[in-house]
Specification:
The complex is a heterodimer of chains A (78) and B (418). Chain A is mostly helical and 78 residues long. Helices cover 21% and strands 3% of the residues of chain A. In chain B, 30% of the residues lie in helices and 26% in strands. Classes of the chains: A mainly alpha (78), B alpha/beta (418). Chain B: This is Peptidase family M28.
């Protein structure tokens, strides 16, 4: 089919969505009011770690990342 | 396979997407009767009943599945706090100046008053202790024997609210309050004067409740046909006493998108394609509803393609996509759909129910397009952008239609099973 030339779609490899970096939120989607294109950097933030960690732990949050966030009292896990 | 007539058919479906209908859905879900839709509450049950009726209205066979949810935090009375600098009492506002930390013990709704001190520096006995910014809460307990409670600095959001979380640490042995960072700094400075005091209540309990997912089956796939599952969580963090948290963007907007996309796809897909909807509960308590549902799918060896929407309220430059499971083929279709509808996508975290479905091996994409007022009173219906919901709904409709129309593209050479 003819695709429209309108800037839609992934700017890079769609498969990058299979290995996204961590998140600023915990057990919920983080606020993304200013999500910008595109900057997957492979690094986990304080909470909740990476998707791979979460998957490995059968949880939406990696335990280590969550423990760090809880211990720091810095917010996203309480 | 795609034919020359199919783009026009797809565009006809896309033209049916109604922003007005989604706005109305969000307004209803964010309304007072649903009380912010926390799992296990009457408001959550009312939202569930309403959603079931919406699904039945578009021809779905609706079922409900329950699951236990333990120790849900519940602030059962409006917390009170004030501090005195030695001369003047300053009454504080719950939700803005302070909130109840998830690690807090339930100390009731009557305020306890005592002098302010600094954890690690002052005698804790009978004091409210400010936890220094450099000290972890877990370490603060080491310095808190006999203390009235702990005060932890915490940044507020851009609207000045403490956002509410339901998933987090278990209660400790003391009352713990989160205090806005700026106020916390003022209190630390006031401790040096020696006359500052704090008075506060911390009415928070843990309740065991029952969560419930709402499932709607709109079409049944033929044995080799594509089966699509559209999901969104309908629960929110719930109102606090005296503080509405309507959960419009998170995730009334996602629910509205799924409702609208399901309505359109139900009538527009080929006859061999399956379509179901899951409005899952308990996301805010750790994605428990989707975990329950994913377990059911694994047990029955159902393998739908999963599209999860978490937040369609505030699109900036692109929608975030996080994929899991054998989703290369689904991602290719999503990309194609986004190119057709003109929506930029970027690989980004969508830490939601999509991870539960991916964890059981289902090809899954999670889509997030922003939220204003995350988990706060500012998550109101008027801040959900209709054009964002339209853009995400068009993406979902196009993805579903393309997946159904060209199922061979859903397999890849790198291990996808479909």
């Amino acid at each position: 089919m003819t695709e429209t030339k309108n800037g839609g779609g992934f700017t890079g490899d769609p498969a990058a969505a299979l290995s996204v970096a961590g998140t600023g939120g915990c057990c919920g989607n983080p606020p993304q009011a200013n999500l910008s294109l595109p900057e997957p950097d492979g690094a986990a933030t304080t909470c909740c770690g990476t998707a791979a960690e979460a998957k490995a732990e059968s949880s939406c949050c990696g335990t280590a990342a969550k423990a760090d966030a809880v211990a720091s009292g810095s917010g996203c896990c309480g | 396979m795609t034919t020359g007539s199919e783009p026009a058919a797809l565009d006809r479906l896309l033209a049916e997407v109604s922003g007005e209908r989604m706005v109305a859905t969000v307004a209803t879900l964010a309304g007072d009767p649903f009380e912010g839709r926390r799992v296990g509450t009457p408001g959550g049950a009312a939202a569930r009943a309403w959603l079931a009726r919406q699904l039945e209205g578009i021809g779905a066979t609706v079922t409900t599945e329950t699951f236990p949810v333990r120790a849900v935090p519940d602030v059962y009375a409006a917390p009170i706090a004030e501090w005195n600098d030695g001369d003047i009492a300053h009454r504080l506002t719950f939700g803005r100046d302070f909130s109840v930390h998830l690690a807090s013990v339930d100390a009731g709704d009557q305020p306890k008053r005592g002098p302010l001190g600094l954890a690690g520096a002052d005698d804790p006995t009978g004091r409210w202790l400010l936890v220094p910014a450099a000290m972890a809460l877990a370490d603060a307990y080491e310095h808190a024997a006999g203390a009235l409670g702990l005060l932890v600095g915490r940044a507020v959001d851009g609207d000045g609210w403490h956002f509410t979380m339901l998933a987090g640490p278990n209660p400790g042995r003391l009352p713990v309050l989160s205090v806005a960072t700026e106020l916390h700094e003022r209190l630390v400075a006031a401790v040096g004067g020696g006359a500052a005091s704090w008075s506060a209540s911390s009415p928070i309990r843990r309740v065991d409740v029952t969560g419930a997912n709402v499932h709607g089956r709109l079409r049944t796939a033929t044995p080799r046909g594509v089966d699509l599952l559209l999901t969104a969580h309908y629960d929110g963090v719930g109102h606090h006493p005296g503080l509405r948290q309507p959960a419009a963007a998170d995730n009334g907007s996602g629910v509205a998108v799924v409702c609208e996309a399901a309505r359109i796809l139900a009538a527009g897909l080929p006859s061999d394609v399956g379509l179901s909807v899951a409005f899952v509960d308990g996301e805010e308590t750790g994605a428990l509803g989707s975990a329950h549902h994913a377990g059911q799918l694994r047990a029955t060896d159902d393998q739908p393609l999963v599209i999860n929407v978490d937040g369609a309220g505030c699109l900036h430059e692109a929608a975030a996509v996080e994929a899991g499971g054998p989703a290369h083929g689904l991602l290719a279709v999503l990309d194609r759909a986004a190119r057709h509808t003109g929506l930029p996508l970027t690989a980004g975290p969508v830490a939601s129910d999509n991870r539960r479905y991916a964890a059981v091996g289902l090809a899954t994409v999670g889509i997030g397009a922003g939220m204003a007022g995350y988990h706060s009173p500012a998550d109101t219906a008027d801040r959900v952008e209709p054009e964002t919901m339209v853009a995400i709904c068009r993406l979902v409709v196009a993805t579903g239609w393309l997946a159904a129309s060209d199922a061979t593209k859903l397999s890849s050479l790198i291990g996808d099973r479909r």
